[in-house]
From TrEMBL:
The keyword Metal-binding does not apply. GO terms for cellular component: cell division site; cell outer membrane. InterPro entries: Cell_wall_metabolism_enzyme, Dup_hybrid_motif, LysM, LysM_dom_sf, M23ase_b-sheet_dom. This is LysM domain-containing protein. Residues 82-110 have a biased composition (Low complexity). It comes from Paraburkholderia tropica. Residues 1-29 form the signal peptide.
Length: 235
């Protein structure tokens, strides 16, 4: 009975993680719009797009800003011909205020600096970079069977092919609410619940559910996709 309960709990946890990836990887939205992801708030979306909360609320007719839902599409840029709205979003400079770097408007805000140490998950050429909207990770191409390794130590929380568009997929959970995902593999060498070391071979590169041989690699913090290149060493 206890074993059956643990198996059921593990399946539910993995299903939730897969659903999270599916929600975050849904169809792209047009310029000036943003699809709400798990953990988002109106203030966080406003900061990430260099807008004020009042503008986001006004442009989307939000009666309750605390009730946005995952998958909801919000306008994050002024409607055409609304120059005044754009002007109100510009911050006023003050002589005494310290300068802060502007958030990256191309996608979700980055995770805290130096909170995870990654190594490259495979060798090859990066053919697609992260942009936070149309691309939730990076794509690395090489020959079939090229080794895929764990980018950081952690625990395998999903190993399978149940998420359409990702092929043979591995998801590894790391400390500090981080996940890494490794998609389109030819073969998987680790199982759910298994602990892996950084640099351990976990898969072989392939083209499962894809039109070319490559690794699609994602890094997520508290459910939100972030640019893995920021935490990968230069090469």
């Amino acid at each position: 009975m206890a074993q059956r309960f643990r198996r059921g709990f593990r399946q539910l946890a993995c299903a939730a993680l897969v659903a999270l990836l599916a929600a975050c990887g849904s169809a792209p939205v047009g310029p000036g719009f943003y699809r709400v992801e798990r953990g988002d708030t109106v203030s966080k979306i406003a900061r990430g797009n260099r807008q004020s909360v009042s503008n986001i609320v006004r442009w989307n007719n939000l009666s309750n800003p605390d009730a946005i839902e995952v998958g909801q599409v919000l306008r994050v840029a002024p409607p055409a011909g609304s120059a005044a709205g754009a002007e109100r979003t510009a911050p006023r400079a003050t002589a005494a205020a310290p300068r802060e770097s502007a958030p990256d408007s191309s996608g979700p805000a980055p995770a805290p600096v130096s909170s995870i140490s990654l190594i490259w998950p495979t060798a090859g050429q990066v053919v697609r970079n992260f942009d936070g909207r149309n691309s939730k990770g990076i794509d690395i191409v090489n020959a079939p069977g090229t080794p895929i390794v764990a980018a950081a130590p952690g625990t395998v929380v999903y190993a399978g092919n149940g998420l359409r568009g990702y092929g043979n997929l591995l998801i590894i959970k790391h400390g500090g609410d981080y996940l890494t995902a490794y998609a389109h593999n030819q073969a998987l060498f680790v199982k759910e619940g298994e602990s892996v070391a950084q640099g351990q071979k976990i898969a072989a590169m392939g083209d499962s559910d894809n039109d070319r041989v490559m690794l699609h690699f994602e890094l997520r913090y508290q459910g939100r996709s972030i640019d893995p290149a920021r935490d990968l060493p230069p090469r």
